Amino acid sequence: MSMAQAVICRACGQSNSPGAAMCTGCWGLLDRVAAGIGEEVASTAERDLRKKEISRIRRSILGSVLAAVGVVLAIQFLNVTLPVPPPSSDISSVSGPGEWAMIYRTSEGAGPVPEESASIEGQVKWTFETSKPIVSTPTIKGGRLYLTTQDNRVMALAAATGSIIWEYGTETAIDSSPTVAEGLVIFATRDRKVIALDADTGQSRWQFVTGEGGPNTGSSLVKDGVVYVGSGDGKIYALDALTGTERWSHLTRDWITNTAALSGDILVVSSMDGRVTMYDTNTGKRRFSFRGLNQDVVGSPIIVEDSIYVPYRNGILATVNLKEEEVLFYSRWYRFKLQMWLWGWRDHPGLPKGVERTYRLRGTIEMTPAADEGKVYVPIQDGRLHAIDRSTGKRLWLFDSRAYGLSTPTIVEDTVLVGDGKGMLYAVDKDSGEKQWELQIAERGFSTPVLAGGTLYLASKDGTLYAVE
User: Fold this and answer.
1) How many Å apart are CA 218 and CA 230, to the nearest integer?
2) How many domains does the chain have?
């Protein structure tokens, strides 16, 4: 019986086992380059040259693969972000004297309202009725009031009289507040849309549809030609303000139900899983992120100087450093140390990086706090309003309305205006916490009290918008 002969590669001279399909020396297909009986293989010199070439090709391929892997790892772990082209405009939402152009008047969040007086006589100037509760905050710009409703409408009213200037119908209810930015009215809807209307006519300018997930309930911010809005799909979106095209987006770990805060070029986003993330608005790059002290951030974060105040639903108010930056692998290391503490193997690791202080308040926080230079005013759902000293973290005073469901406070001069769930509006001295006056306005609670041009606008869950002098 004859033994099967080895197959010699004509290209490189490698001896291969009988029946082999590919040469183990040069990776050539043997049915194309194998030597037949009586045929000669390449010379030794030629084979050496070919082996060197093959070796060079192999090194090049391996180097390219390693370089590609290195680039991917750098992008993932070092958060490398490519430059973003400039937006098509530089329009911004700005609240001038007598105006309230976005949900909390400024992009930093609820703070003092300049050039207004808290001396309200309580006379209802006009009302505007809707068929469903109003949960959004009206905005005021250029003598017009813009309102979104749960009976599927957006409208522009004359701020002085409440008469309708234009009306725009939507397919679903609207929870978000309108944002006005140089001729545009921008809002989000429950059916995953972000819509921009012409502020003068109410005509649609553009629409953007977010990803699959929950409804869009948070309000938008507009600065330097970019719209920033959180979504029910768990993403924060940066859209071109004039066209609605997406510039960048980032996925958080849960639904974003509230409004982001923006100071300079730092955007602060909090989601329902308790995560707080900061982004560079120029590049879309994540600057810093930490998993919070508990889940559920319903109220919006606010920014005062270099501090971010984040209200957790379980009654914790956390202060985070606005200038904090990411450190590679820190969050994993902190979670490991925390787990070691839970197992009893080490001391508690302390607060996470970036968290400066926590305030533990009894009760549930579902609304956004307000702050000035010295204090943070935190509304609790059971009807109590806490004033916290920003420098020491101590509670300075407590006002108890004895009614469930306080609104986000509005700070005017030396007064804090806050509504309760029964339609009562309170004026509280911001230094002492003493009640200055109260007015029974509505039958149910309010969104954030809006004070603009000497008139107080209160949107109520009883379906009515009240203009009070």
Assistant:
1) 6
2) 1
